[in-house]
Amino acid sequence: MIALGQFLEVLIGGLMSGVLYSLVALGFVLIFKASGVFNFAQGAMVLLAGLALVRSLDLLVANGFPIWIAIVLGIGFAAVIMAITAWLIERFVIGPLVNQNALTLFMSTIGVTFVLEGAAQMIFGSDVYPLRLFPTDIWLLFESHFPGGILVNQLDVWGGLIAGILVAGLAIFFQQTKTGRALRAVADDHMAAQSVGIPIGWIWFVVWLVAGLVALVAATVWGTKLGVQFSITFLALKALPVLIIGGLTSVPGAIVGGLIVGAGEKLAEVFLGSHIGGGIEYWFAYVLALAVLLVRPQGLFGERIIERI
Amino acid sequence: MAIGGKQARENKTRYRKNGLNEEESYMVRNKLLLAAAILSGGAFASPAAAQSEQFIPILSYRTGAYAVNGVPYANGVADYYNLVNERDGGINGVKLLVEECETGYATDKGVECYERLKGKGPTGAAFFNPLSTGITFALTEKTTTDKIPIITMGYGRADSKNGAVFAYNFPLLGTYWSAADIAIQHVAKEVGGFDKLKGKKISLLYHDSPYGKEPIPMLQVLAKKYGFEFTPIPVTHPGVEQKSQWLSIRQNRPDYVLVWGWGVMNGTAVKEAAAVAYPRDKMIGVWWSGAEPDVQPAGDQAVGYKALMLQHGAGKFPVHADIEKYVYAKGMGASEPGKIGEVLYNRGMVNAMLGVEAIRKAQEKFGKKPLTGEQVRWGLENLNLSEARLKELGFEGMLKPIKISCSDHEGARDGRVQQWDGKGWKIISDWYTANQTETEPLVDEVSAKYAADKKIQPRDCSKES
Question: What is the pTM of this model?
Answer without folding.
Answer: 0.87
